[in-house]
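Task: sequence design from structure.
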C-alpha cells in the first residue's frame, strides 16, 4: 500500500492541504518607517508595548539608528 507522499513523488505533484480560514494565522500588522519620506517596511520597533497600548516608533533597517536616536530625544 502506497502512502500519500509516495503517490506525490510518483506523480510529481505535491499533495494539496486545505487550510480553513478560521484556523489560518492572522497577518501581522505592517508598520512603516518613521523617517519622513522613507515609507519602507519597518521591522524594528522602539518604545513598543503592545500590552500597554503603546505603538512606539518603527523603522526600516536603513534608518534603524536614526529612529532609535529620535526615540531617545523624546
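Answer:
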Amino acid at each position: 500500500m502506497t502512502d500519500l507522499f509516495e503517490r506525490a513523488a510518483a506523480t510529481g505533484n505535491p499533495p494539496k492541504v486545505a487550510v480553513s480560514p478560521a484556523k489560518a494565522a492572522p497577518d501581522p500588522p505592517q508598520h512603516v518607517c518613521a523617517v519622513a519620506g522613507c515609507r519602507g517596511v519597518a521591522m524594528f520597533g522602539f518604545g513598543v508595548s503592545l500590552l500597554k497600548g503603546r505603538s512606539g516608533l518603527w523603522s526600516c533597517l536603513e534608518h534603524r539608528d536614526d529612529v532609535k536616536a529620535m526615540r531617545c530625544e523624546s
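Residues 6 and 12 are 10 Å apart (CA to CA).
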